[in-house]
Amino acid sequence: RRVHGGDENIRTPAKIYMRVPLFHADAFTSEPFHGNPAAVCLLSTHISDELKHQIAAENNLSETAFIEPIATPLQQHNSDTFSVFREANSFSLRWFTPKLEVNLCGHATLASAGVLQYFGNHNATISFHTKSGILNTTSNGQKEFEMMFPLNVPEYVCDGKGVLDPTQNALGDVCLYRMLEGVFGEGFDISIIDKVVFSRNTKKLVVQLVQSGPTPLLSLSPNFPHLLSSHNGSIITGISVTTPPDRTFDPSIDFYSRYFAPWNGINEDPVNGSSHTILAPHWASELKLSRTMKAMQCSRRGGMLWVTMKEAEGKVVLGGSVVVVMEGVLSLDE
Fold first, then answer.
1. pLDDT averaged per 10 residues, the chain (length 334)
2. Would you please indicate which residues are annotated as catalytic (active-site) residues?
3. Contact (CB, 8 A) for 194 and 210
4. How far is CA 294 from CA 107, 132, 279, in A?
5. Which of 217, 225, 253, 330 could make an SS bond with 22 (beta carbons 3.0 to 4.6 A apart)?
6. What angle do CA 109, 271, 94 make, to 5 degrees?
7. Predicted TM-score of the model (pTM)
8. Strands (DSSP E) along the chain, which ranges?
9. What spatial distance separates the first Cα and last Cα of the chain, rounded to whole Å?
10. Where are the alpha helices (DSSP H) in the chain?
């Protein structure tokens, strides 16, 4: 705004009707610039969905999380408008991509819990009311958080040979070999595959390789246009490629993975929480383990998480660290 009666080049600040604390947090990592990034906004008053879409598009990250308190009504002109974010243990949470709202996002939920703790909320348990129900996160106070998700036990599809023969796998309507050429390269050798499993509930395919450790995963260079042309996403919307542990590389890690989902508009998810609701029961069975398992996702950014089976409850606990790497204020003009 220009100053009237003075230098026309001098501007006064535009009137601000809302200042939104805005954070950039990396989930499933203890190191900045690793893991899966998300933006988190603390809303002291309601804003329109249209504005949420615009903010998410401006952030241009895979997800922007919007947190609003639900337990305590806020007075807009309180001396400390944001004290509720440090004190309450129950919030509304919604997630927006740059293009649309999603019903569930694991890493942005973890990031939200991490941001609240960074902001000064030290409740051991935080409940998020979402479109997928109430999600509880717990923390040990050391930037480590856990969330409980539904357990998705996969069904066996085939071994490596079955990838070539539709009559020998449970996904006969999908040409697995042609589709997996988009992951492993044209004319790939089926002997690299140990087995294939599938979660119909999540539409995620898991391909377990024979070779152990991160090396075979790091060498993958998927052809995403090929993946999209080989299948329309009606049955499969994501592929997790996974390998068994290499105890000589890192004795603490129980399995490795990478996750590709071009059908959802995400070529590779740096660290995908929902795929671990399938990988957890799969590797618990493969390795005959009942303890908490440690997993590494071998994307370019990389990430670490731990998983604990709660079979009696039909749940799996996903855990990881959060690092807040950026803090600012989003100023909205009147």
1. 41 64 96 96 92 94 93 49 91 92 90 96 95 90 89 94 82 88 96 96 95 98 97 93 97 97 90 93 96 97 96 93 96 71
2. 63
3. yes
4. 17, 26, 11
5. 330
6. 25
7. 0.84
8. 16-27, 36-42, 64-69, 90-96, 101-102, 125-130, 133-139, 144-150, 155-159, 193-199, 204-209, 238-243, 255-261, 266-268, 293-297, 303-310, 315-333
9. 13
10. 49-59, 84-87, 106-119, 176-184, 215-218, 224-230, 276-287
pLDDT at position 16, please? 54
Sequence-separated (6 or more) residues with CB below 8 Å from residue 319: 144, 145, 146, 147, 305, 306, 307, 308
Per-position DSSP letters for 144-169, written without gaps between them: EEEEEEE--PPEEEEETGGGT-GGGS
Query: What residue has token string 């990881």?
Result: 320
Other beta carbons within 10 angstroms of residue 313's beta carbon come to 11
Quote the radius of gyration of the chain (alpha carbons, Å): 22
Of 200, 196, 202, 154, the residue nearest 179 (C-alpha): 196
Residues in the chain: 334
Distances (CA, A) of 125 to 72, 89, 108, 136, 249: 17, 7, 16, 7, 35
- What type of residue sits at position 124? A
17 burial via Cβ count (<10 Å: 0-12, 13-18, 19+) = exposed
88: Cβ–Cβ under 8 A, 6 or more apart, which residues? 69, 70, 71, 72, 121, 123
